[in-house]
Amino acid sequence: MWQEFRKCYAQAECPEDCTLQVEDYYECLTRSKEIARAQTIQREYNRQRAATKAEEEALAQQSKQDPTSFMARLKVLEEELKRQQAKE
After folding, report:
1. What residue numbers bound the domain in which 22 lies?
2. Which of 34, 54, 63, 85 is the most core-located residue (most Cβ within 10 A)?
3. Which of 43, 46, 64, 66 is nearest to 54 (CA)?
4. Are the C-beta atoms of 18 and 8 separated by less than 8 Å?
């Protein structure tokens, strides 16, 4: 990276022409963009995991209060419930 930057800087008419090489060189040294991206991914993963956990806990709490509601939501026993209601 350093060599690419140095080559660009030596051949460029103005230093602003080498901004991409400078960026690449600093990223290679510090890994700041890579670290920021990894942190963003980790935060989003944690957020989604917490949301899923909260949703599962809410469904579990609801199923404790009304056992049929959880099964109906999953549509596992939906047809059976319809048949039973039709018989009544």
Report:
1. 2-87
2. 63
3. 46
4. yes
pLDDT tens across 4-40, in order? 878 887 888 888 888 888 888 888 889 999 999 999 9
Please report which confidence band the pLDDT of residue 45 belongs to, taking 50, 70 and 90 as the band edges: very high
d(CA 72, CA 74): 5
Domain count, the chain: 1
Question: What is the Cα–Cα distance from 61 to 75, expressed in whole angstroms?
Answer: 18
pTM over 0.85: no
By the 8 A CB rule, do 69 and 63 touch? yes
**Do residues 82 and 71 touch, judged by C-beta distance below 8 A?**
no
